[in-house]
Amino acid sequence: MGINLHHFLLSALAMSVPLARTAAVSSANASAACQFISATGTETLTLQADALNPQWINAQSHYWNAGNADLYPACAVFPTSAEEVSQIVSILQNNTGVTFAVKSGGHNPNVGFSSVDGGVLISMSNLSSTVLSQDQTTVDIGPGARWVEVAEALDSSGVTVVSGRLGDVGVGGLTLGGGLSFLSAEYGLVCDNVVNYEVVLANASIVNANAFTNSDLYWALKGGGNQFGIVTKFTMKTHPIGQIWGGIRSYAATEAAAILNATQDFTVNYYKDPKAAVIVTGEITIENLLETFIVFFFYDGPSPPAGVFDEFNAIPFLTDGTKVQSYYDLINSGDSTNLYGLRYLIRATTLPNLPNANGKALYNYHYNEWRNYVLTEGVLHPGFIFSLAFQPMPFIIPGHSVAAGGNALGMNPAEGDRMWMEYDISWLTAAGDDSAYSMARSITATIDEYVKTTYAGIPNTHYGSGDLEVEEYNPIFMNDAMYDQKPLQSYENNGFAKLKAIQQSVDPSGLFPNRTGGFKFS
């Protein structure tokens, strides 16, 4: 996910998914399921009995996208162990038709993915510990933890994990979607650094999925989403960390060309120093027609060497928040700007990082077309905020994935450098849902068609081999995908077919695809 200065990634969700509109039909059966769960001793709260309970309020309404808070579960349950999760799954299996959702941090904006109307909401908030191994090589992390909590727990140890870039994001959802980190160029995606998943399957069994046991399931959980079971613990590799340099600089939109040219060059040269990272975000606030660029800088060390950020450093900036700090302080620094209560959506696409003038022309064209569209259409919607984020995906990140045994996304380093694009829209009320949805689709459709037509057959930087008609535009990054997109189907090297077969093997009754939200295999 990218960086938005005013709302730090708050955008809006366009409309409720079908699951959210039909789940309330089974609320009578869900009430019975809630009673059975409560009888096992797992903490169970309901709107009728616990409306003023802060734990209920947080579970039901604390989401980045306020559209999720429009849904009311029959109950929210708070397991404290894999055994309690197993009991919950067994009860759900025995109560036909009861819908459910698993909530980690509540940061996914897609309504019904971590929220449910009339069903059972399984909050992982009591499974949120961070436990470092005695030899400090691994750490056990609960899915309900937020990355800032993980960073804080490890702050004095001299090690960290490949984490999400925003502290308020939950561990569970980001990791199962792949997870892009400031440390990814050094160590791979977040999911590449998981060595074991403790997971409850649809038959209520508790298994460990790693490279030696349940290896197919282990591979599937590395970026394959939430349709395989409920993860109750991630065991992740640790990496040494000391003082780092980073933070946000803001720029006037008049510097757009220089910033985008620097972004293209940085992506080409990313492999020369994988300790560096950037996220480049353009933002337009319709209410006052404010246009800005926000660049988030990161370097794994106290002082970036000459040459790493030189092109960015030469661009005049408005504000500069970069400094030497701890990794925990960096992850924690943006959370004060999180604003809840807005509706928002995120949509994704993938573009090739083309060489030289072609690459610069593509990024500048895309930004200018996005800007013109937003100012033309957005002016009809006061209160809307739009942003687009350029998130470099250099060939060295897939290289780490391959070295780690591969993941569900199936990217090949020989395919070269790409750019994972993220588009955010945020607004205040449900009246804007349809407009936001329509605009988000138009934005991605326009650029996808343009680049495939204009730059057909031109290989991206560091390209070695692969089908240019496919690889340059895939995969769609699940963590940024909107509910009507199909990230699983975009996975390479026959990833979708393999994932579908694994999902059916561990969940032959279809508990997860039929009764919970998420990206599907159909």
Protein architecture, described:
The chain is built from 18 helices and 19 strands. It has 522 residues and is α+β, with helices and mostly antiparallel strands. Strands 12, 13, 14, 15, 16, 17, 18 and 19 form an eight-stranded antiparallel beta sheet that branches. A five-stranded antiparallel beta sheet has the order 5-6-10-8-9. The chain has a four-stranded mixed beta sheet with strand order 1-2-4-3, with helices on both faces. The two termini are 26 Å apart. GO terms for molecular function: FAD binding; oxidoreductase activity.
Oligomeric grouping of the chains:
single chain
The beta-strand count equals: 19
Whole-Å distance between the termini?
26 Å
Radius of gyration: 22 Å
Shape verdict: globular
Strand content: 15-25%
Bin the helical content: 25-40%
Q: Whole-number average pLDDT?
A: 92
Give the uncertain stretches in residue-range form: 2-26
Largest sheet: 8 strands, antiparallel
- How does the helix and strand content classify structurally? alpha+beta
Count of individual helical segments: 18
